[in-house]
Specification:
With 204 residues, the chain is an alpha/beta fold. 48% of the residues lie in helices and 12% in strands.
């Protein structure tokens, strides 16, 4: 790791010290792949006749893919099957982009360092099939005790439901859980769940 990454790694270990469970977002938090997800959304939207401004993907960071598809339809006044859009986006991402995924080194190394010290889970708005591949590529899948993803709860981020389900599965009180995110919707969900949170993209 670079000196900057080592500094951030140490900072994350300090922040995590008083918590019993660590809940990680995946895309943009463990995996350096938001550029790839944006490209997959843009390519999918183009097939539906939409010239997508990918800043919408930043706004909806952490949302389930179906919810993002629904937001695209609203913003661009297009009517389409959001489930089919979501499946197509996942296919394009896997076929064209997923193997390019790199770990965000200081977050992944922090996760690995905490194995055996803390309970560890991932909480993401992505589909289980796509997440499984992403987590395998960055060598994290077998390090997780549980994975909460799209469809596991009635509502996704920014609802607290996915985080509360992860805490329930780990049998850890929400107040003893720390959530790692790279977007505001996830932080909102963590706060609503009564959990601590850290924006890994805003570490100084």
């Amino acid at each position: 790791m670079s000196p900057e990454s080592i500094e951030k790694f140490n900072k994350l270990n300090e922040i995590a010290a008083s918590y019993d469970a660590l809940l990680f977002d995946v895309d943009g938090t463990l995996a350096d792949n938001m550029h790839a997800h944006k490209a997959a959304y843009v390519a999918t939207a183009a097939e539906y006749g939409v010239t997508l401004d990918d800043r919408l993907i930043d706004e909806t960071a952490g949302w389930p893919t179906v919810a993002v598809a629904q937001e695209i339809g609203i913003r661009y006044q297009k009517t389409f099957d959001v489930v089919e859009f979501s499946k197509r986006k996942s296919t394009i991402f896997i076929e064209r982009f997923v193997q390019q995924t790199q770990p965000i080194d200081y977050v992944v190394e922090h996760l690995k360092f905490q194995i055996g010290k803390k309970r560890i889970a991932a909480v993401s708005g992505g589909t289980r099939s796509t997440l499984t591949i992403t987590l395998t590529v960055i060598d994290v899948l077998d390090k997780l005790e549980t994975l909460v993803c799209a469809g596991d709860t009635l509502n996704g981020k920014p609802s607290p439901e996915p985080f509360l389900l992860a805490a329930e599965r780990l049998q850890i009180e929400p107040s003893k859980c720390l959530v790692y995110e790279d977007g505001e919707p996830g932080v909102q969900g963590a706060t609503a769940a009564g959990m601590g949170s850290v924006r890994i993209d805003l570490l100084d």
